[in-house]
From TrEMBL:
It is a multi-pass membrane protein. This is MMPL family transporter. The keyword Kinase does not apply. It is found in: Cell membrane. Residues 749-786 are annotated as: Disordered. It holds the Pfam family MMPL. Residues 209-338 form the SSD domain. The lineage of its organism: Bacteria, Bacillati, Actinomycetota, Actinomycetes, Kitasatosporales. The chain crosses the membrane at residues 183-203, 210-231, 243-260, 288-307, 313-339, 378-398, 567-585, 597-615, 635-655, 676-704, 710-729. It comes from Streptomyces cuspidosporus. InterPro entries: MMPL_dom, Mycobact_MmpL, SSD.
Length: 786
């Protein structure tokens, strides 16, 4: 099949390049629309209490709607109670109400009680007012339009000494969308020059570097085009674009590097272009395919986590790897055939080439280093394992939660407004717990139970207050407060009382909201404990015609964490089984896959440990990167890291073991084949690791905390995997396992004579001439040359 494919490329390589050119032009046009289609959603757990509460309060309440925002108005010049403050704030509210893009259906807050002696919607400083708006625009549209509207507000009111900022889920993720695009550009500005320099140093050829960049770039463009088409029918997270770019650059260029390097090695041995390409695809191409399948399968296991944001990011990651594999196997061979021997042209560092740079792995320093490790395998294995175990210990303290506005830069108006709400009204006011009570009949019949529930919630520890309509209803109808909800009576209430009732009671009087205001942030430990108590109280009152559920930001985060924790055992089990099967079939070995899994568990644990240290509360690393050092990592980051790092670590395992297996099948003993495999792959894997660390490290500077966390964890893990694991732990373990490395049921090792173990088949990478040379020249102590 490989021979036929290579001959086909040779015949139609120029038309194939033209087809790829057309595909890239079309894909580029489609990819441009991707950012506007991405969603900040995906955090709601299907079937969870918090999801039901979020859906129920979208309709029928004043100041709540399809999309709900809190507008924070800060007047630097005038204080509340003055005519100037009143006029300026009222004008800002009117501007929002009249903005046709926002479709403000209702609002509630400062405007309801302005002029009152005590206004709970005026901040402690007397210069800040808040107003809640319900918008009749869907969440996805809101997230697209709100960033532009916010910037218009900044320009319109800034010169007047007013800050008008929007707080809420839609403004937050709308801002994240904008920051994500800006961060992507910033990361690319940092990463692309680094990648170019690293490729030039590794390949010592501008032609090779350019071809690798073209292949990876083509994969990224096609991926974005497919994601853009998918986004028309499915909600894709705003984090998909950054994740796909980061992974696509790393994996795509890595795959290209391995194939280009092998192609050049074959050409340097004197093979003609067609034969060199055939051998390359049968060896490195096969390895790239196995590696890509491993990553895709690992990402597919995340479907067991029933959280849309994780599933959409996993889809993007799997897609970019799949397209990278296709580009490496379908586009790159065409480019290599077209370029041919010119692949090594324009050696920009010819004078810097060390004398040891040779195609023979036995003449490299890596070969001598590998033998030094193999002479003391117990020391290398125990020492390396101990270092990994120590690095993994901090992972025990890893704490996760859903992101809030604190992950945005302090220069953002959305972040400043969020901080202002916390400062002026209280930390809990920015993210109240929402207790929604739904009755099968009008609420008047359950008034006593609802009042008792409100009082019990207010008595819980760490509750500042409970906001509800009960006080207003009591004033309207003393002794029988819920009679004020009767048809005709409610409409005759004073305007302020009617607005308050409308904010907490639905129009049909079958739903009521009580907001529990905690003392601390939504993600604080004591707030999460409070949620448990609130839900216990709600559960006791639930039933007998009432359905009571608890939502809000804390509940959404806790529900998301739970669904991740519930799905994690299945994810890990299926992923490890899939990796085991793939490696077992690839290398015809039972013990090597088990060893790979054990080692990968250690390296992934180190990544978690370093992530916990870097983003712990008060961490200088987080502060240096411009992130919120709250001590909590975004909850989807660890599970994504787990899948990505297991698959990427397996990548390196596949590349190393692929070469080791070639030498072993060619007749080298276990120890010698390990040393030769390490020597043959060491320079390239180290270079690939440097490249990946540069890519992932560059994305820590994107300004988007979840992406920064993901990039940091991946950079650390790849660095550890390519050094400590591949240089010490893996060779030491293979030395100690001896011939058991290659044990496979029903499989016997072929004769050690290379002539018997090689055929004209392109599954091996040399010609019969090479085999003859090996048979004639190799002494008993000299390993064969693949």
């Amino acid at each position: 099949m490989t021979e036929r494919f290579v001959r086909f490329i040779g015949r139609v390589r120029w038309p194939l390049l033209a087809v790829w050119g057309v595909l890239l032009v079309v894909s580029g046009a489609l990819a441009l629309s991707l950012p506007d289609k991405l969603s900040g959603g995906g955090w709601y757990v299907p079937g969870a209490q918090s999801t039901w509460v979020a859906q129920q309060q979208k309709d029928g309440f004043t100041g709540r709607g399809e999309t709900s925002v809190t507008v924070v108005i800060h007047d630097e010049r005038f204080a509340a109670g003055t005519d100037r403050f009143d006029r300026r704030v009222r004008q800002a509210v009117a501007d929002i109400e009249d903005d046709g893009r926002l479709k403000a259906a209702s609002h509630y807050g400062w405007s309801t009680f302005r002029g009152a002696t005590e206004n709970t919607f005026v901040g402690r400083d007397g210069h800040t007012a808040i107003e809640m708006f319900g918008l009749d625009v869907d969440d996805g549209t809101a997230r697209r339009i709100l960033p532009d509207i916010q910037r218009e507000f900044d320009a319109r009111y800034g010169e007047r000494g007013l800050t008008v900022g929007m707080v809420g889920t839609a403004p937050f993720f709308g801002e994240i969308n904008v920051l994500s695009e800006e961060g992507l550009v910033r990361a690319e500005v940092i990463v692309l020059p680094l990648i170019t320099l690293i490729l030039l140093l590794l390949f010592r050829s501008a032609v090779s570097a350019v071809i690798a960049m073209i292949t990876a770039g083509a994969a990224a463009v096609v991926t974005f085009a497919v994601l853009s088409l998918l986004a028309d029918s499915y909600d894709l997270s705003v984090f998909v674009q950054n994740t796909a770019t980061m992974l696509g650059l790393g994996v795509g260029i890595d795959y290209s590097m391995f194939i280009i390097r092998r192609f050049r090695d074959e050409l340097e041995r004197g093979e003609p272009v067609e034969n060199a390409l055939r051998v390359t695809l049968a060896t490195s191409g096969e390895t790239v395919l196995a590696s890509g399948v491993t990553v895709i399968v690992s990402m597919a296991t995340l479907a067991f986590v029933d959280l849309p944001v994780i599933q959409s990011i996993a889809l993007g990651a799997a897609l970019v790897v799949a397209v990278s594999v296709l580009a490496a196997l379908l586009l790159l061979p065409v480019l290599l055939y077209a370029v041919g021997p010119r692949i090594g042209r324009w050696d920009l560092f010819a004078r810097l080439r060390p004398a040891s740079a040779t195609a023979d792995p036995r003449e490299r320093g890596w070969y001598r280093f590998a033998h030094r490790v193999l002479r003391r395998p117990v020391l290398a294995l125990v020492g390396g394992g101990a270092v990994l175990a120590v690095g993994a210990v901090p992972a025990l303290g890893l704490d996760t939660f859903t992101p809030d506005a604190r992950i945005t830069p302090t220069t953002s108006t959305v972040r400043q407004s969020y901080d202002r709400v916390e400062e002026q009204f209280g930390k809990g006011d920015a993210s109240p717990m929402v207790v929604l009570i739904r009755s099968d009949h009008p609420l008047r019949g359950a008034g006593g139970r609802i009042a008792a529930l409100r009082d019990e919630l207010g008595a819980l520890e760490h509750v500042r207050r409970v906001d509800s309509p009960l006080d207003v209803l009591e004033q309207a109808a003393p002794g029988r407060p819920f009679d004020a909800l009767a048809p005709g009576v409610r409409d005759r209430l004073p305007a302020a009382a009617r607005a308050t009732v409308g904010h907490f009671v639905s129009r049909d009087a079958t739903e009521l909201i009580a907001q529990v205001i905690p003392e601390d942030h939504a993600s604080a430990t004591r707030t999460r404990r409070l949620l448990t108590e609130v839900r216990k109280v709600a559960a006791k009152a639930d039933g007998d015609g009432l359905r009571i559920a608890v939502g809000g930001q804390t509940a959404e985060g806790v529900d998301a964490n739970k669904v991740i924790a519930d799905g994690l055992p299945t994810v890990v089990g299926v992923m490890l089984l899939a990796i085991f099967v793939i490696l077992m079939l690839s290398f015809r070995s039972v013990l090597l896959p088990l060893k790979a899994i054990a080692v990968n568990v250690l390296s992934v644990s180190v990544a978690f440990g370093m992530l916990a240290l870097a983003f712990r509360e008060g961490s200088p690393v987080a502060e240096a990167l411009g992130f919120d050092p709250s001590g909590r990592v975004t909850n989807f980051v660890p599970v994504l890291l787990l899948a990505l790092l297991f698959s990427l670590s397996t990548d390196y395992e596949v590349f190393v073991l692929g070469r080791v297996r070639e030498y072993y099948k060619a007749g080298a003993g276990n120890t010698e084949s390990v040393a030769l495999g390490i020597s043959a792959t060491g320079p390239l894997i180290t270079g690939a690791a440097v490249l990946m660390v540069a890519v992932f490290g560059g994305f820590t500077l994107s300004g988007i905390q979840p992406i920064g966390e993901l990039g940091f964890g991946m950079a650390v893990a790849i660095a550890v995997d390519a050094t400590l694991v591949r240089m010490f732990v893996v060779p030491a373990a293979m030395k100690l396992m001896g011939s058991a490395n290659w044990w496979f049921p029903g499989h016997r090792r072929a004769s050690s004579t290379p002539a018997h173990s090689r055929t004209r088949s392109t599954q091996q990478h040399g010609s019969e001439r090479h085999v003859a040379e090996l048979s004639a020249d190799r002494g008993p102590e000299v390993p064969p040359r693949p």
